[in-house]
Amino acid sequence: MTSSISSRAAIAGLAALAMAGFVACGGNGDSGGGASGEAGGGSTVVIKNFKFEPANLKVAPGAKVTVKNEDAAAHTLTADDRSFDTGNIEGKGQKEITATKAGQVAYKCDIHPYMTGVIQVSGS
Ligand SMILES: [Cu+2]
Predict the structure, then answer these.
(1) pLDDT in tens, 29-72
(2) What is the distance in A from the centroid of ligand 1 to the CA of 13?
């Protein structure tokens, strides 16, 4: 009697632990969704719904930045000081810029000047 109750309780306990484990894993996966911390190799700015994402990107000097246009409309990513400029990126297309000038460079879309962002170029 008592042994069957305690073994049932043990099984219920294990099941609860397993559930908690799954929930914890799922939660971690979700919260780690922002891929902003890509250092060194390549960074990406996505243009979607007439917005740059991330609007504020930090890169190392000389870093290549891939600019992906997920809209159907054409966009550009053009530095206010013209230190980088993708030119027209057709809908669903992508281009690459190299951020060479240190400091904060504000940029915008030449076609839609209300689309703005900043690339921060800083050495480590
Ligand atoms: Cu645009």
Answers:
(1) 333 333 444 444 579 999 999 999 999 999 999 999 999 999 99
(2) 56
pLDDT value for 28: 36
Q: Which amino acid is at 30?
A: D
Instruction: Judge whether 18 and 25 are in contact, CB under 8 Å.
Output: no
What's CA 20's distance to the chain center, in Å?
Answer: 29
User: For residue 26, what are the CA distances in angstroms to 13, 16, 29, 90?
Assistant: 20, 15, 5, 37
CATH 2.60.40.10 fits 42-121, yes or no: no
Provide the residue ranges of all domains of the chain, joining segments of one domain with +.
1-32, 42-121
Distance 4 CA to ligand 1 centre (A): 69
| Ligand 1 centre distance from Cα of residue 70 (Å) | 11
The whole model's pTM is what? 0.66
